[in-house]
Protein backbone atom coordinates (compact mmCIF):
# COMPACT_ATOMS: atom_id res chain seq x y z
CA UNK A 1 0.00 0.00 0.00
CA UNK A 2 1.28 3.48 -0.85
CA UNK A 3 1.36 5.62 2.23
CA UNK A 4 2.61 9.09 3.00
CA UNK A 5 4.94 7.52 5.57
CA UNK A 6 6.63 5.21 3.03
CA UNK A 7 6.79 7.82 0.33
CA UNK A 8 8.28 10.60 2.43
CA UNK A 9 10.59 8.25 4.37
CA UNK A 10 12.03 7.09 1.02
CA UNK A 11 12.76 10.68 0.16
CA UNK A 12 14.57 11.08 3.51
CA UNK A 13 16.80 8.13 2.56
CA UNK A 14 17.47 9.69 -0.87
CA UNK A 15 18.61 12.90 0.83
CA UNK A 16 20.87 10.84 3.15
CA UNK A 17 22.59 9.26 0.16
CA UNK A 18 23.10 12.61 -1.54
CA UNK A 19 24.67 13.92 1.68
CA UNK A 20 27.04 10.97 1.88
CA UNK A 21 28.19 11.62 -1.70
CA UNK A 22 29.33 15.10 -0.58
CA UNK A 23 31.07 13.63 2.45
CA UNK A 24 32.98 11.16 0.29
CA UNK A 25 34.08 13.87 -2.13
CA UNK A 26 35.25 16.08 0.77
CA UNK A 27 37.11 13.16 2.36
CA UNK A 28 39.02 12.55 -0.88
CA UNK A 29 39.81 16.26 -1.27
CA UNK A 30 37.73 16.64 -4.47
CA UNK A 31 36.33 20.07 -3.59
CA UNK A 32 34.84 20.84 -7.01
CA UNK A 33 32.99 17.52 -7.05
CA UNK A 34 31.93 18.13 -3.43
CA UNK A 35 30.36 21.45 -4.40
CA UNK A 36 28.48 19.83 -7.31
CA UNK A 37 27.23 17.02 -5.09
CA UNK A 38 26.31 19.50 -2.40
CA UNK A 39 24.21 21.42 -4.93
CA UNK A 40 22.17 18.28 -5.61
CA UNK A 41 21.83 17.53 -1.91
CA UNK A 42 20.75 21.07 -1.05
CA UNK A 43 18.21 21.10 -3.87
CA UNK A 44 16.74 17.79 -2.71
CA UNK A 45 16.46 19.11 0.85
CA UNK A 46 14.81 22.35 -0.27
CA UNK A 47 12.34 20.39 -2.44
CA UNK A 48 11.51 18.15 0.50
CA UNK A 49 10.93 21.10 2.84
CA UNK A 50 8.84 22.86 0.18
CA UNK A 51 6.68 19.76 -0.44
CA UNK A 52 5.95 19.54 3.26
CA UNK A 53 5.47 23.23 3.95
CA UNK A 54 3.32 24.01 0.92
CA UNK A 55 1.37 20.75 0.50
CA UNK A 56 1.47 18.18 3.27
CA UNK A 57 1.48 20.37 6.38
CA UNK A 58 -1.36 22.71 5.29
CA UNK A 59 -3.55 19.67 4.51
CA UNK A 60 -2.74 18.14 7.89
CA UNK A 61 -3.46 21.43 9.65
CA UNK A 62 -6.80 21.86 7.87
CA UNK A 63 -7.82 18.30 8.56
CA UNK A 64 -6.88 18.28 12.28
CA UNK A 65 -7.23 21.94 13.20
CA UNK A 66 -3.72 21.72 14.75
CA UNK A 67 -2.08 24.85 13.40
CA UNK A 68 0.36 25.45 16.22
CA UNK A 69 1.20 21.82 16.93
CA UNK A 70 3.75 19.44 15.39
CA UNK A 71 3.83 21.11 11.96
CA UNK A 72 4.93 24.36 13.54
CA UNK A 73 7.77 22.51 15.27
CA UNK A 74 8.76 20.85 12.00
CA UNK A 75 8.82 24.22 10.22
CA UNK A 76 11.09 25.55 12.97
CA UNK A 77 13.46 22.61 12.48
CA UNK A 78 13.44 23.17 8.70
CA UNK A 79 14.62 26.73 9.38
CA UNK A 80 17.46 25.41 11.54
CA UNK A 81 18.48 22.94 8.82
CA UNK A 82 18.39 25.69 6.19
CA UNK A 83 20.84 27.65 8.35
CA UNK A 84 23.12 24.60 8.64
CA UNK A 85 22.93 24.05 4.85
CA UNK A 86 23.98 27.65 4.26
CA UNK A 87 26.86 27.30 6.73
CA UNK A 88 27.96 24.02 5.08
CA UNK A 89 27.88 25.66 1.63
CA UNK A 90 30.09 28.48 2.93
CA UNK A 91 32.57 25.97 4.41
CA UNK A 92 32.75 24.19 1.03
CA UNK A 93 33.52 27.46 -0.75
CA UNK A 94 36.27 28.12 1.81
CA UNK A 95 37.49 24.52 1.37
CA UNK A 96 37.57 24.28 5.17
CA UNK A 97 37.61 20.54 5.95
CA UNK A 98 37.14 20.81 9.73
CA UNK A 99 34.33 23.32 9.48
CA UNK A 100 32.49 21.36 6.80
CA UNK A 101 32.85 18.07 8.69
CA UNK A 102 31.58 19.60 11.95
CA UNK A 103 28.63 21.36 10.32
CA UNK A 104 27.73 18.28 8.26
CA UNK A 105 27.81 16.06 11.35
CA UNK A 106 25.51 18.48 13.18
CA UNK A 107 23.21 18.63 10.17
CA UNK A 108 23.12 14.83 9.93
CA UNK A 109 22.09 14.39 13.58
CA UNK A 110 19.57 17.25 13.26
CA UNK A 111 18.15 15.69 10.08
CA UNK A 112 17.86 12.23 11.55
CA UNK A 113 16.19 13.24 14.81
CA UNK A 114 13.81 15.35 12.70
CA UNK A 115 13.17 12.37 10.38
CA UNK A 116 12.49 10.14 13.39
CA UNK A 117 9.78 12.48 14.63
CA UNK A 118 8.23 12.67 11.18
CA UNK A 119 8.46 8.97 10.33
CA UNK A 120 7.37 7.65 13.73
CA UNK A 121 4.78 10.23 14.67
CA UNK A 122 3.79 12.91 12.17
CA UNK A 123 3.56 10.92 8.90
CA UNK A 124 1.54 8.08 10.50
CA UNK A 125 -0.83 10.80 11.75
CA UNK A 126 -1.00 12.25 8.23
CA UNK A 127 -1.84 8.77 6.89
CA UNK A 128 -4.53 8.47 9.51
CA UNK A 129 -6.11 11.88 8.95
CA UNK A 130 -5.67 12.23 5.19
CA UNK A 131 -6.85 8.74 4.15
CA UNK A 132 -9.28 10.10 1.54
CA UNK A 133 -6.70 12.42 0.02
CA UNK A 134 -3.67 10.11 -0.22
CA UNK A 135 -4.37 9.03 -3.81
CA UNK A 136 -4.43 12.63 -5.04
CA UNK A 137 -1.72 13.87 -2.69
CA UNK A 138 1.06 11.42 -3.55
CA UNK A 139 1.39 12.49 -7.25
CA UNK A 140 1.43 16.11 -6.11
CA UNK A 141 4.19 15.41 -3.63
CA UNK A 142 6.03 13.44 -6.31
CA UNK A 143 5.87 16.46 -8.61
CA UNK A 144 7.32 18.72 -5.90
CA UNK A 145 10.14 16.30 -5.13
CA UNK A 146 10.91 15.48 -8.78
CA UNK A 147 12.89 18.70 -9.18
CA UNK A 148 15.91 17.10 -7.61
CA UNK A 149 17.88 14.34 -9.25
CA UNK A 150 17.67 11.59 -6.62
CA UNK A 151 19.69 8.44 -6.24
CA UNK A 152 17.30 5.48 -6.10
CA UNK A 153 17.32 3.71 -2.72
CA UNK B 1 -1.94 12.12 19.84
CA UNK B 2 -2.05 14.40 22.84
CA UNK B 3 1.61 13.61 23.40
CA UNK B 4 2.50 14.82 19.94
CA UNK B 5 1.12 18.30 20.51
CA UNK B 6 4.10 19.21 22.61
CA UNK B 7 6.84 17.13 21.05
CA UNK B 8 8.88 20.26 20.53
CA UNK B 9 9.39 20.29 24.26
CA UNK B 10 12.81 18.72 24.36
CA UNK B 11 13.66 18.14 28.03
CA UNK B 12 15.76 20.92 29.58
CA UNK B 13 19.51 20.47 29.12
CA UNK B 14 20.01 19.76 32.83
CA UNK B 15 17.58 16.79 32.80
CA UNK B 16 19.68 14.26 30.85
CA UNK B 17 23.05 15.95 31.39
CA UNK B 18 23.20 15.30 35.15
CA UNK B 19 23.06 11.55 34.42
CA UNK B 20 25.72 11.76 31.70
CA UNK B 21 28.09 13.72 33.97
CA UNK B 22 27.62 11.34 36.89
CA UNK B 23 28.31 8.18 34.86
CA UNK B 24 32.12 8.56 34.55
CA UNK B 25 32.33 9.25 38.30
CA UNK B 26 31.14 5.69 38.92
CA UNK B 27 33.76 4.30 36.54
CA UNK B 28 36.39 6.40 38.36
CA UNK B 29 35.25 4.81 41.62
CA UNK B 30 35.52 1.40 39.94
CA UNK B 31 39.12 2.22 38.98
CA UNK B 32 39.90 3.27 42.56
CA UNK B 33 38.31 0.10 43.86
CA UNK B 34 40.58 -1.99 41.60
CA UNK B 35 43.64 -0.16 42.94
CA UNK B 36 42.43 -0.44 46.54
CA UNK B 37 41.47 -4.12 46.51
CA UNK B 38 44.28 -5.28 44.22
CA UNK B 39 44.46 -8.75 42.59
CA UNK B 40 42.16 -10.29 45.24
CA UNK B 41 39.21 -8.74 43.41
CA UNK B 42 39.73 -11.21 40.58
CA UNK B 43 39.81 -14.29 42.85
CA UNK B 44 36.20 -15.00 41.81
CA UNK B 45 33.10 -13.21 40.52
CA UNK B 46 31.68 -13.52 44.04
CA UNK B 47 34.31 -11.52 45.94
CA UNK B 48 32.75 -8.47 47.66
CA UNK B 49 34.98 -6.18 45.60
CA UNK B 50 33.99 -7.88 42.31
CA UNK B 51 30.30 -7.51 43.20
CA UNK B 52 30.82 -3.86 44.15
CA UNK B 53 32.74 -3.25 40.90
CA UNK B 54 30.03 -4.93 38.80
CA UNK B 55 27.35 -2.69 40.32
CA UNK B 56 29.42 0.50 40.06
CA UNK B 57 29.60 -0.16 36.31
CA UNK B 58 26.11 -1.60 35.65
CA UNK B 59 23.84 0.20 38.13
CA UNK B 60 26.23 3.17 38.25
CA UNK B 61 27.68 4.05 34.86
CA UNK B 62 25.37 2.15 32.50
CA UNK B 63 22.06 2.82 34.22
CA UNK B 64 22.83 6.54 34.59
CA UNK B 65 23.47 6.86 30.84
CA UNK B 66 20.42 4.75 29.94
CA UNK B 67 18.07 6.77 32.17
CA UNK B 68 19.39 10.11 30.90
CA UNK B 69 19.14 8.95 27.29
CA UNK B 70 15.61 7.56 27.77
CA UNK B 71 14.37 10.87 29.22
CA UNK B 72 15.85 12.62 26.19
CA UNK B 73 14.79 10.27 23.40
CA UNK B 74 11.26 9.22 24.38
CA UNK B 75 9.73 12.41 22.93
CA UNK B 76 11.89 12.22 19.79
CA UNK B 77 11.51 8.59 18.74
CA UNK B 78 8.07 7.86 20.15
CA UNK B 79 6.39 11.25 20.62
CA UNK B 80 6.05 10.17 24.26
CA UNK B 81 6.47 13.22 26.46
CA UNK B 82 7.39 12.77 30.09
CA UNK B 83 5.55 15.24 32.30
CA UNK B 84 7.95 17.52 34.22
CA UNK B 85 11.17 15.90 32.91
CA UNK B 86 13.46 18.11 35.00
CA UNK B 87 11.67 17.24 38.24
CA UNK B 88 11.69 13.54 37.33
CA UNK B 89 15.39 13.64 36.41
CA UNK B 90 16.24 15.44 39.66
CA UNK B 91 14.36 12.95 41.83
CA UNK B 92 15.50 9.80 40.01
CA UNK B 93 19.10 10.99 39.95
CA UNK B 94 18.95 11.97 43.62
CA UNK B 95 17.71 8.48 44.53
CA UNK B 96 19.83 6.38 42.16
CA UNK B 97 23.22 7.99 42.76
CA UNK B 98 23.46 7.48 46.55
CA UNK B 99 21.62 4.16 46.08
CA UNK B 100 24.47 2.73 43.98
CA UNK B 101 27.11 4.14 46.34
CA UNK B 102 25.38 2.51 49.32
CA UNK B 103 25.04 -0.76 47.42
CA UNK B 104 28.78 -0.82 46.67
CA UNK B 105 29.47 0.10 50.32
CA UNK B 106 27.14 -2.73 51.39
CA UNK B 107 29.10 -5.30 49.37
CA UNK B 108 32.42 -4.04 50.69
CA UNK B 109 31.43 -3.77 54.40
CA UNK B 110 28.50 -6.26 54.69
CA UNK B 111 26.71 -3.52 56.63
CA UNK B 112 22.97 -4.41 56.68
CA UNK B 113 21.87 -0.76 56.87
CA UNK B 114 23.76 0.05 53.66
CA UNK B 115 21.93 -2.77 51.82
CA UNK B 116 18.54 -1.70 53.21
CA UNK B 117 19.01 1.95 52.29
CA UNK B 118 20.37 1.00 48.85
CA UNK B 119 17.30 -1.17 48.21
CA UNK B 120 15.00 1.66 49.30
CA UNK B 121 16.73 4.33 47.19
CA UNK B 122 17.26 2.23 44.04
CA UNK B 123 13.74 0.83 44.31
CA UNK B 124 12.11 4.24 44.63
CA UNK B 125 14.27 5.78 41.89
CA UNK B 126 13.44 2.97 39.47
CA UNK B 127 9.74 3.02 40.41
CA UNK B 128 9.54 6.77 39.77
CA UNK B 129 11.23 6.44 36.39
CA UNK B 130 9.19 3.40 35.36
CA UNK B 131 5.96 5.13 36.37
CA UNK B 132 6.76 8.25 34.36
CA UNK B 133 8.18 6.46 31.29
CA UNK B 134 5.41 3.84 31.37
CA UNK B 135 2.74 6.55 31.58
CA UNK B 136 4.30 8.45 28.64
CA UNK B 137 4.63 5.31 26.48
CA UNK B 138 1.23 3.87 27.44
CA UNK B 139 -0.54 6.37 25.20
CA UNK B 140 1.69 5.65 22.18
CA UNK B 141 0.72 2.92 19.68
CA UNK B 142 3.34 0.16 19.27
CA UNK B 143 3.62 0.91 15.57
CA UNK B 144 7.27 -0.03 15.01
CA UNK B 145 10.13 -2.08 16.52
CA UNK B 146 11.66 0.91 18.33
CA UNK B 147 8.52 1.80 20.26
CA UNK B 148 7.78 -1.88 20.96
CA UNK B 149 11.36 -2.40 22.15
CA UNK B 150 11.27 0.63 24.45
CA UNK B 151 8.00 -0.61 25.96
CA UNK B 152 9.30 -4.15 26.41
CA UNK B 153 12.54 -2.96 28.05
CA UNK B 154 10.70 -1.29 30.94
CA UNK B 155 9.54 -4.53 32.64
CA UNK B 156 13.16 -5.71 32.31
CA UNK B 157 14.33 -2.79 34.45
CA UNK B 158 11.49 -3.42 36.91
CA UNK B 159 12.38 -7.10 37.31
CA UNK B 160 16.12 -6.38 37.62
CA UNK B 161 15.66 -3.78 40.34
CA UNK B 162 12.89 -5.78 42.08
CA UNK B 163 15.05 -8.91 42.29
CA UNK B 164 18.04 -6.76 43.24
CA UNK B 165 16.06 -5.28 46.15
CA UNK B 166 15.10 -8.77 47.27
CA UNK B 167 18.74 -9.87 47.17
CA UNK B 168 19.93 -6.75 49.01
CA UNK B 169 17.36 -7.29 51.76
CA UNK B 170 18.42 -10.95 52.00
CA UNK B 171 22.07 -9.89 52.29
CA UNK B 172 21.01 -7.47 55.03
CA UNK B 173 19.67 -10.48 56.89
CA UNK B 174 15.99 -9.57 56.61
CA UNK B 175 15.04 -12.98 55.21
CA UNK B 176 16.50 -15.97 53.39
CA UNK B 177 16.35 -16.58 49.65
CA UNK B 178 18.25 -18.96 47.35
CA UNK B 179 20.98 -16.38 46.72
CA UNK B 180 22.87 -17.99 43.82
CA UNK B 181 19.76 -18.87 41.85
CA UNK B 182 18.13 -15.46 42.34
CA UNK B 183 21.40 -13.74 41.46
CA UNK B 184 21.58 -15.47 38.09
CA UNK B 185 17.94 -14.54 37.34
CA UNK B 186 18.63 -10.93 38.48
CA UNK B 187 21.69 -10.79 36.20
CA UNK B 188 19.82 -12.24 33.22
CA UNK B 189 17.03 -9.67 33.53
CA UNK B 190 19.52 -6.84 33.85
CA UNK B 191 21.66 -7.96 30.93
CA UNK B 192 19.05 -9.35 28.53
CA UNK B 193 15.65 -8.07 29.69
CA UNK B 194 16.70 -4.45 30.17
CA UNK B 195 20.09 -3.66 28.57
CA UNK B 196 20.02 -5.78 25.42
CA UNK B 197 16.34 -5.12 24.58
CA UNK B 198 16.88 -1.38 25.06
CA UNK B 199 20.16 -1.43 23.13
CA UNK B 200 18.60 -3.37 20.25
CA UNK B 201 15.63 -1.06 19.92
CA UNK B 202 18.02 1.91 19.79
CA UNK B 203 20.38 0.10 17.39
CA UNK B 204 17.57 -0.61 14.90
CA UNK B 205 17.19 3.17 14.53
CA UNK B 206 20.56 4.66 15.28
CA UNK B 207 22.81 2.39 13.22
CA UNK B 208 20.99 2.74 9.85
CA UNK B 209 20.11 6.43 10.28
CA UNK B 210 23.33 7.83 11.71
CA UNK B 211 25.85 5.50 10.14
CA UNK B 212 23.97 5.45 6.79
CA UNK B 213 23.69 1.67 6.47
CA UNK B 214 21.00 -0.61 5.04
CA UNK B 215 18.23 -1.33 7.56
CA UNK B 216 18.25 -4.44 9.76
CA UNK B 217 16.15 -7.26 8.25
CA UNK B 218 12.50 -6.48 9.03
CA UNK B 219 11.75 -10.00 10.30
CA UNK B 220 14.58 -9.68 12.81
CA UNK B 221 13.77 -6.16 14.03
CA UNK B 222 10.06 -7.00 14.36
CA UNK B 223 10.55 -10.17 16.37
CA UNK B 224 13.71 -9.54 18.36
CA UNK B 225 12.44 -7.90 21.57
CA UNK B 226 9.30 -10.05 21.93
CA UNK B 227 11.15 -13.34 21.30
CA UNK B 228 13.98 -12.48 23.66
CA UNK B 229 11.60 -11.44 26.42
CA UNK B 230 9.57 -14.66 25.96
CA UNK B 231 12.76 -16.76 26.15
CA UNK B 232 13.85 -14.88 29.26
CA UNK B 233 10.50 -15.46 31.00
CA UNK B 234 10.53 -19.18 30.14
CA UNK B 235 14.17 -19.53 31.22
CA UNK B 236 13.44 -17.79 34.55
CA UNK B 237 10.59 -20.23 35.22
CA UNK B 238 12.63 -23.29 34.15
CA UNK B 239 15.57 -22.15 36.27
CA UNK B 240 13.31 -21.30 39.20
CA UNK B 241 11.62 -24.71 39.32
CA UNK B 242 14.87 -26.56 38.69
CA UNK B 243 14.37 -28.00 35.19
CA UNK B 244 18.07 -27.83 34.48
CA UNK B 245 18.08 -29.28 30.93
CA UNK B 246 15.32 -26.93 29.77
CA UNK B 247 17.01 -23.98 31.46
CA UNK B 248 20.26 -24.73 29.59
CA UNK B 249 18.41 -25.03 26.30
CA UNK B 250 16.59 -21.71 26.83
CA UNK B 251 19.80 -20.01 27.99
CA UNK B 252 21.47 -21.18 24.75
CA UNK B 253 18.59 -19.78 22.72
CA UNK B 254 18.89 -16.42 24.50
CA UNK B 255 22.65 -16.26 23.99
CA UNK B 256 22.27 -17.16 20.30
CA UNK B 257 19.64 -14.43 19.86
CA UNK B 258 21.91 -11.82 21.48
CA UNK B 259 24.85 -13.10 19.40
CA UNK B 260 22.69 -12.73 16.27
CA UNK B 261 22.04 -9.08 17.16
CA UNK B 262 25.79 -8.49 17.48
CA UNK B 263 26.58 -10.28 14.18
CA UNK B 264 23.83 -8.45 12.28
CA UNK B 265 24.93 -5.10 13.68
CA UNK B 266 28.53 -5.77 12.62
CA UNK B 267 27.33 -6.86 9.19
CA UNK B 268 25.02 -3.86 8.72
CA UNK B 269 27.73 -1.51 10.01
CA UNK B 270 30.29 -2.93 7.58
CA UNK B 271 28.05 -1.62 4.78
CA UNK B 272 28.07 1.95 6.14
CA UNK B 273 28.34 4.58 3.41
CA UNK B 274 30.06 7.11 5.68
CA UNK B 275 33.42 8.28 4.33
CA UNK B 276 35.29 7.25 7.47
CA UNK B 277 34.60 5.60 10.81
CA UNK B 278 34.45 8.04 13.70
CA UNK B 279 34.86 7.26 17.42
CA UNK B 280 31.16 6.44 17.84
CA UNK B 281 31.31 3.83 15.07
CA UNK B 282 34.51 2.35 16.48
CA UNK B 283 32.86 2.15 19.89
CA UNK B 284 29.80 0.41 18.42
CA UNK B 285 31.98 -2.11 16.59
CA UNK B 286 34.04 -2.86 19.69
CA UNK B 287 30.86 -3.23 21.77
CA UNK B 288 29.33 -5.70 19.31
CA UNK B 289 32.56 -7.74 19.03
CA UNK B 290 32.81 -7.95 22.83
CA UNK B 291 29.11 -8.85 23.21
CA UNK B 292 29.55 -11.58 20.61
CA UNK B 293 32.68 -12.90 22.34
CA UNK B 294 30.90 -12.87 25.69
CA UNK B 295 27.96 -14.85 24.26
CA UNK B 296 30.26 -17.41 22.60
CA UNK B 297 32.27 -17.90 25.81
CA UNK B 298 29.07 -18.29 27.86
CA UNK B 299 27.71 -20.83 25.37
CA UNK B 300 30.97 -22.77 25.58
CA UNK B 301 30.83 -22.71 29.38
CA UNK B 302 27.25 -24.09 29.29
CA UNK B 303 28.45 -27.20 27.46
CA UNK B 304 32.05 -27.75 28.50
CA UNK B 305 32.08 -28.30 32.29
CA UNK B 306 35.88 -28.28 32.18
CA UNK B 307 35.79 -24.54 31.47
CA UNK B 308 33.58 -23.69 34.43
CA UNK B 309 36.22 -25.11 36.75
CA UNK B 310 38.31 -22.09 35.89
CA UNK B 311 37.47 -18.93 37.84
CA UNK B 312 38.74 -16.83 34.91
CA UNK B 313 35.89 -17.89 32.64
CA UNK B 314 32.96 -15.98 34.23
CA UNK B 315 35.28 -13.05 34.99
CA UNK B 316 36.26 -12.88 31.33
CA UNK B 317 32.59 -12.99 30.23
CA UNK B 318 31.76 -10.26 32.73
CA UNK B 319 34.60 -7.95 31.66
CA UNK B 320 33.64 -8.45 27.99
CA UNK B 321 29.93 -7.78 28.57
CA UNK B 322 30.27 -4.86 31.01
CA UNK B 323 33.41 -2.99 30.00
CA UNK B 324 33.68 -4.17 26.38
CA UNK B 325 29.97 -4.15 25.50
CA UNK B 326 27.99 -1.88 27.82
CA UNK B 327 30.54 0.82 28.60
CA UNK B 328 31.82 1.04 25.01
CA UNK B 329 28.47 1.48 23.32
CA UNK B 330 27.38 4.04 25.89
CA UNK B 331 30.51 6.17 25.66
CA UNK B 332 30.19 6.03 21.86
CA UNK B 333 26.59 7.27 22.06
CA UNK B 334 27.49 10.01 24.57
CA UNK B 335 29.88 11.45 21.99
CA UNK B 336 26.94 12.06 19.67
CA UNK B 337 24.19 12.88 22.18
CA UNK B 338 26.08 15.41 24.30
CA UNK B 339 27.56 17.62 21.52
CA UNK B 340 24.23 17.57 19.68
CA UNK B 341 22.26 18.58 22.80
CA UNK B 342 24.71 21.42 23.44
CA UNK B 343 24.29 22.60 19.84
CA UNK B 344 20.49 22.22 19.90
CA UNK B 345 19.94 24.10 23.15
CA UNK B 346 22.38 26.87 22.13
CA UNK B 347 20.73 27.15 18.72
CA UNK B 348 17.31 27.50 20.36
CA UNK B 349 18.61 30.01 22.88
CA UNK B 350 20.32 32.05 20.17
CA UNK B 351 17.07 32.03 18.16
CA UNK B 352 18.95 31.95 14.87
CA UNK B 353 20.71 35.25 15.55
CA UNK B 354 23.68 33.95 17.53
CA UNK B 355 24.94 30.79 15.80
CA UNK B 356 25.80 27.79 17.95
CA UNK B 357 29.22 26.10 17.58
CA UNK B 358 29.00 22.91 15.48
CA UNK B 359 29.22 19.52 17.20
CA UNK B 360 32.92 19.02 16.51
CA UNK B 361 33.68 22.30 18.28
CA UNK B 362 31.76 21.24 21.41
CA UNK B 363 34.17 18.36 22.07
CA UNK B 364 37.29 18.30 19.89
CA UNK B 365 37.65 15.10 17.83
CA UNK B 366 41.27 14.80 18.95
CA UNK B 367 40.20 14.67 22.61
CA UNK B 368 37.54 12.07 21.80
CA UNK B 369 40.05 9.88 19.94
CA UNK B 370 42.54 10.06 22.83
CA UNK B 371 39.86 9.01 25.30
CA UNK B 372 38.85 6.14 23.00
CA UNK B 373 42.41 4.78 22.87
CA UNK B 374 42.63 5.01 26.67
CA UNK B 375 39.38 3.02 26.92
CA UNK B 376 40.67 0.36 24.48
CA UNK B 377 43.83 0.00 26.55
CA UNK B 378 41.87 -0.17 29.84
CA UNK B 379 39.70 -2.93 28.36
CA UNK B 380 42.72 -4.92 27.16
CA UNK B 381 44.33 -4.63 30.61
CA UNK B 382 41.11 -5.68 32.37
CA UNK B 383 40.86 -8.76 30.12
CA UNK B 384 44.47 -9.60 30.93
CA UNK B 385 43.76 -9.05 34.64
CA UNK B 386 41.05 -11.73 34.53
CA UNK B 387 43.81 -14.25 33.67
CA UNK B 388 46.83 -12.77 35.43
CA UNK B 389 45.47 -10.59 38.23
CA UNK B 390 48.86 -10.34 39.94
CA UNK B 391 50.37 -8.63 36.91
CA UNK B 392 47.54 -6.62 35.47
CA UNK B 393 45.09 -5.50 38.21
CA UNK B 394 46.98 -2.30 39.07
CA UNK B 395 47.70 -1.23 35.46
CA UNK B 396 44.05 -1.97 34.61
CA UNK B 397 42.79 0.12 37.55
CA UNK B 398 45.11 2.96 36.62
CA UNK B 399 44.08 2.89 32.96
CA UNK B 400 40.38 2.78 33.91
CA UNK B 401 41.00 5.93 35.95
CA UNK B 402 42.77 7.64 33.05
CA UNK B 403 40.11 6.67 30.48
CA UNK B 404 37.24 7.89 32.64
CA UNK B 405 38.97 11.02 33.87
CA UNK B 406 39.42 11.77 30.18
CA UNK B 407 35.73 11.05 29.50
CA UNK B 408 34.74 13.33 32.38
CA UNK B 409 37.02 16.05 31.06
CA UNK B 410 35.46 15.74 27.59
CA UNK B 411 31.94 16.02 29.03
CA UNK B 412 32.96 18.96 31.22
CA UNK B 413 34.47 20.72 28.21
CA UNK B 414 31.06 20.33 26.50
CA UNK B 415 29.44 21.90 29.57
CA UNK B 416 31.99 24.73 29.58
CA UNK B 417 31.30 25.35 25.88
CA UNK B 418 27.56 25.48 26.65
CA UNK B 419 27.97 27.94 29.51
CA UNK B 420 30.39 30.15 27.61
CA UNK B 421 28.01 30.44 24.66
CA UNK B 422 25.03 31.04 26.95
CA UNK B 423 26.87 34.13 28.22
CA UNK B 424 27.61 35.20 24.65
CA UNK B 425 23.95 34.78 23.73
CA UNK B 426 22.82 36.72 26.82
CA UNK B 427 25.17 39.55 25.84
CA UNK B 428 23.91 39.40 22.24
CA UNK B 429 20.28 39.44 23.36
CA UNK B 430 20.90 42.36 25.70
CA UNK B 431 22.12 44.43 22.77
CA UNK B 432 19.16 43.24 20.61
CA UNK B 433 16.30 43.01 23.14
CA UNK B 434 13.61 41.67 20.73
CA UNK B 435 14.62 37.98 21.09
CA UNK B 436 12.19 35.56 22.72
CA UNK B 437 14.88 33.24 24.17
CA UNK B 438 13.51 29.93 25.47
UniProtKB/TrEMBL annotation, chain A:
Signal peptide (UniProt feature, chain positions): none
Pfam families recorded: Hemerythrin
Occurrences of domain Hemerythrin-like (ranges): 3-126
GO cellular component: plasma membrane
InterPro entries assigned: Hemerythrin-like (IPR012312)
Name of the protein: Iron-sulfur cluster repair di-iron protein
Phylogenetic lineage: Bacteria, Pseudomonadati, Pseudomonadota, Betaproteobacteria, Candidatus Accumulibacter
From TrEMBL, chain B:
Keywords in alphabetical order: Membrane, Transmembrane, Transmembrane helix
Membrane-spanning ranges: 19-37, 49-74, 86-108, 114-140, 152-175, 187-207, 219-237, 243-266, 286-307, 313-335, 373-392, 398-418
Name of the protein in question: Transmembrane protein
Species name: Candidatus Accumulibacter vicinus
